[in-house]
Amino acid sequence: MKRALAIMVGAALILLLATLTLVVMPYLQMSAEQIPPDLKPYTEQQQRGRQVYIANGCVYCHSQQPRDPSFAPGDKARGWGRPSVPGDYAYDEPHLLGTMRTGPDLFNIGARQPSIDWQLMHLYNPRAIIKGSIMPSYPFLFRHVEEPVEGDKVVNIPPPYGPETGKIVATEDALALAEYMLALDHTYPAPTLPKKQSNSDEPKENRAP
Amino acid sequence: MTPTIAILLIITFVLSTVGLLLLIWSIANNQFSHGQAAARTIFSPGEEGHSEDPARAADEPFTGDTSEQTEAIEARWSADQSSRTAVLTWLSSSVFWLLLGSFFGLASSIKMHLPEFLTASEFLTFGRIRPVHLNAVTYGWASMAGIGVALFLIPRLFKTSLVGGKYAVIGGFIWNIGLILGLSAITLGLSDGEEWLEFPWQIDILFVVGGALCAVPLLLTAANRKVEHLYVTSWYLMAALVWFPFLFLIANLPFAFPGASGATVNWWFAHNVLGLWVTPIGIGIAYYMIPKILGRPIISYQLSLIGFWSLALFYSQVGIHHLIGGPIPTWLVTLSIVHSVMMSIPVITVAINHHGTMMGNFGRLKDSPTLRFVWIGALMYTVASLQGSMEALRSINVITHFTHYTVAHAHLGMYAFLSFILFGAVYFIMPRLTNWEWPWRKLISLHFWLVSAGILIYVVSLTVAGWKQGVALLDAAMPFMDIVKMTLPGLQARTVGGALMTLGHLVFAFHFIAMLLRSGAATEQPTLFRPATKENAQ
Ligand code: HEM
Ligand code: HEM
Of chain B's two ends, which shows fewer C-beta atoms within 10 Å, N or C? Predict the structure, then answer.
């Protein structure tokens, strides 16, 4: 029993060491990180949209973390934005960094596609806008009505993607998700980005197309 | 990097190195004397040189030449029977979750090249069935089968009956309830939102309790053990069962880690599920099965202990290689990359032992299904890990990170390594528990060829597609949609491979149920009790 116990205690101690280096130390360092002054907290609606993003697993195909151009040249050049810093995520709980780019990075989608109509149409059927997209459609975030009533957000879907008759109307969830997309705009300068960065890149953040 | 952090970093490095040296020193002092003796504890007296493989066609099992040896074999038979209810609970559940997880994986795969497939219902959208797949196969199949096999091996390794098996049975029920609730929560859109940690934290408590209940028989049986040596398999199993509840608890602490630090905890956890939970179980099983089936001890016991402790030291610190290039302090990423490369030490020591023991016995792969599954699994462990060490280097990771290449590596590890070893172990264990033989050996063969062809197609197609995708992503001149189109053939091939694997799982599950029902042509008696050999024993 003594030897069995020794193995288990040894195993636990090693994990403790790893927890100190990989959990506690980063937490101490990153929670002391400055929050960029231009970063706005999410509104209630955007937060709800973020929840819709989580519920429907957008994170499994989209990242939210452009890499440094000196490391991975494609990211910035595609208009995905400057490299992100820990402070950018101060209001993110849970984080949604993502590990796949089956679809493009969304860290600055709000700057790249600032129209809510574009966002809603794209959610209803991505192929209505982008030929050959493999993103799923989200018809369940919309209602099909014959006659929209006052206050309904009508989404005009180009044929043949829309219904034959009647109109497509966004639900609260769809609107919230679209608002969250628009909130993903981190084009402000990052105060904590290492200095040498700004020398190698263009001096000003250029807004992505 | 601030000076305090540099100092802390240096201290941890020094600590781990000193720790490793200390361990090597203590191994050299305590274990050298009876190293190879410990390697023999898995055999009962006189059994060395005889194969044990209940899944093999024409097997003449060793039942002892003297009455003393026969007694030892009979004692082992009672040890096997003592764990029966507990093991069958966990294994049967795992087979169910494998089937469920396979269908969800296949559906996810189809959706990636046919995006209009099953989009009407929110419950079947890609972003929900994909985490259902991952959680069903990780916590349902891999974890439950792993615990089941561990429960079978523990009494064998300690040469005593399983004490407190009913705690493990209760634990199994609680674990299943956790899976049902957790997978339903994801389907309903109540995910916690982090990969590998999707289950709502309230439900996670069930897994901690269920897992802890499995530790009870482990501790009670260890206290009762009748062997002097702890065979290396028990090191891996004990450590894994200590690590998992701890990991799962910390990572699920609600609201403790916001923002970017949440990402480090997320991936610290996710990699530890792989490195400190399923991997030690897989390696531990291979350490038992390979020598047992060959009837010869592993070639170097000392090496196996170095492999164990270096795995513990290095694997626990590799998690941040999932965030290379992310908004994470550089020192942290570097720490994980260094440890990822250092992982080649335990990987190579394990490889020397597993494959070195096989040397000269490769012919046995032909007639022993268990050996075939387990050894290919062990080989794929070596391959997946060396691939992983490369993948962690900045120069490679910048290409592969966000691509299907990672998914191919994930299945090489979780499937070709871990699941193969688990399949092999199930083929070994079931006849011992049910005292019944596998009714249709052709089905074992069919299962083997279906899943082998399937995973080969899966890994090769996604590795190629993922690499091309990664190279193209770095070049902004290539439009994004062209890259998507370029990956389509790989994604379609994955569906073909995945369909073959799913078919293989149906064959496996059918055979497993036949075993539980003891159907098929009854051989007059299971080989272990065949009269011919019984006579020998008297
Ligand atoms: C020395 C051993 C290993 C090293 C250094 C290693 C390294 C890595 C790296 C660098 C990634 C890619 C992360 C990314 O770019 O997003 C990765 C992903 C992965 N590895 Fe390994 N690997 C090793 C062995 C294994 C084994 C044995 C398994 C299976 C049991 C495994 C399962 C996985 C899985 C499932 C992922 C995907 C995780 C996710 O994105 O959800 N690896 N590994
Ligand atoms: C039956 C055949 C299977 C098919 C068709 C399949 C398919 C898939 C698909 C489509 C994904 C999502 C990839 C993505 O998001 O891009 C995935 C992820 C994953 N699957 Fe499977 N799978 C199968 C079996 C298994 C098994 C048996 C295991 C484990 C024992 C497993 C472990 C995983 C893991 C760990 C991931 C996450 C990978 C990552 O995040 O990089 N799969 N699988």
Answer: C
